[in-house]
Amino acid sequence: xIYRRRRLRSTSVPSGFYRFEGSGDRMIFGAGxxxxxxLRDESGKEWxxxxxxxxxxxxxxxxxxxxxxxxxxxxxxxxxxxRDEHGNVWRGFID
Length: 95
Known about the structure:
It is elongated and about 60 Å long. Strand 6 (about 70-75) and strand 7 (about 80-85) form a beta hairpin. It is mainly β. The chain has strands at about 15-20, 25-35, 35-40, 45-55, 60-65, 70-75, 80-85, 90-95. The chain is built from no helices and eight strands. Strands 1-2-3-4-5-6-7-8 form an eight-stranded antiparallel beta barrel.
């Protein structure tokens, strides 16, 4: 009997340089390797986070700073959309 070897779908998170732009002059940027990501905002605050594949091409992101603030969002392959507790939105991408 001949068996085919099935390829598993890639569950890796893209790595590279992350860049997000919010309203006004607000920016968040940084680098990430696999599922560990470090970002900095325009005031120098560091955000640490992770990314998790949720199925298909959707990736869920969550970031926390040292004060306990949270940024979270999703990516559908075209771009990344993050939102904080105050309703501020950042749109970004990975280089």
